[in-house]
Amino acid sequence: MKTCVSSYSFNRYLTDTKCSYLEICDKAKEMGFDAIEFIDLYNEKWGKTSDEFEMAKEIKEHCDKIGLEIASYTVSSSKFLEDAQKELERLKIRVDIASVLGAPVMRHDVTFDLRDKPLYTYSDAIDELYPYINDLSNYAKSKGIKTCTEDHGYAFGSAKSIVDTIKKVNNENFGALVDIGNFMCVDDDVVTAVRDTAPFAFHVHAKDFLFKSGSELKPGGWWTPTTGGNYLRGTMLGHGAVPVKACINALKQARFNGYISIEFEGREECLPAIKDSLEFLKKLIESD
Predict the structure, then answer these.
(1) Would you state the pLDDT for residue 45?
(2) C-alpha span between 188 and 161 (Å, rounded)
(3) What is the rounded CA–CA span in Å between residue 239 and residue 265?
(4) Phi and psi for 36 in degrees, rounded to 5?
(5) Are 129 and 111 a contacting pair, CB within 8 Å?
(6) pLDDT for res 40
(7) What tens digit of pLDDT does each residue of 23-46 get?
(8) Helix, strand or coil for residue 136?
(9) What span, in angstroms and rounded, lies between the C-alpha atoms of 49 and 42?
(10) Angle, CA 185 vertex, CA 16 and CA 271 arms, to 5°
């Protein structure tokens, strides 16, 4: 397994310092990460140009120069059920950007919201959308890129929804981005969920949450309820309720040998939190 960090982890640092994406690449390298993962390249204040292709080229050249791999390009997608063909064409452009970055994997969501109609479930959404997801993955394959979807949001946040989607698409180029923390958003048993999705994993997010029962009053700064009515708040890896060690062991048992990307979204000071999370992750990767 190799260590990676999501550019999303640096959001507060990027905002506070007005630094560029290139500078967070330097930070990731200094901390000792093997790779970095990028979220949608859309904010011109974090690069020298507002053109995403030029920005991707800048980043790729800089990462090659400092010896930092680019593990994945993670993009949002919430419009498939509004206009599937239009969303497909938009995501193909994101694949082109991933190709410029040299990222071997691109994650996209299936949908965040289901159709507002009686008894409409994620299975119905899969039945509608799997041909488009398959088309996108085939296009990405022509560029040497694998595509995957993540346990992200509520509609497709469970292990079962991820596995069902992968099996329906039935394309060896399409798999899972397994986020070990996000399963808590739908109150899945985390270790079981990781164990179920690990055989399909192309990429992994290591994330941790503090947990508070929904039977208590929601404090300020905590997230809206999980599907079971509980509350979460991001924290550094190893400080929360996610059984991180058991999750890493489940990935080892599935013979996952790719990148594990720290995705920090806590309220702690950004850079020390990322560094401490990396040290914790390294210990787990190296342990028997």
Answers:
(1) 52
(2) 11
(3) 13
(4) -130, 150
(5) yes
(6) 87
(7) 999 999 999 999 999 998 866 555
(8) helix
(9) 10
(10) 25
- The token duo for 118 is 């009686």
As a whole number of angstroms, the distance between CA 8 and CA 46 comes to 12
The H or E element spanning position 15 is helix 11-17
Neighbours of 113 (CB within 10 A): 12
Residues 6 or more apart whose CB falls under 8 angstroms from that of 144 comprise 99, 104
Residue 135, CB half-sphere, CA atoms under 13 Å: how many? 14
pLDDT of res. 44: 53
The tokens for 78 are 């919430």
3-state secondary structure of 248: helix
Dihedral class, residue 77 (left if φ above 0, else alpha if ψ from -120 to 50, else beta): beta
pTM of the shown model: 0.96
φ, ψ for residue 262 (rounded to 5)? Answer: -70, 125
Q: DSSP string covering 187-213, please? A: T--HHHHHHHHGGGEEEEEE-EEEEE-
Least Cα distance to 74 among 102, 126, 109 occurs for 109
Cα separation of 163 and 279, whole Å? 31
Q: Which helix (H) or strand (E) holds 36?
A: strand 35-39
For residue 8, give both structure tokens: 């999303």
Q: pLDDT under 70 in the chain at which residues? A: 42-50
* Nearest-angstrom CA–CA distance, 25 and 70: 10
Cβ-based burial of 229 (10 A; exposed 0-12, middle 13-18, buried ≥19): exposed
Is the Cβ–Cβ distance between 225 and 214 less than 8 Å? yes
Q: Which SS3 state, helix, strand or coil, does residue 178 take?
A: strand
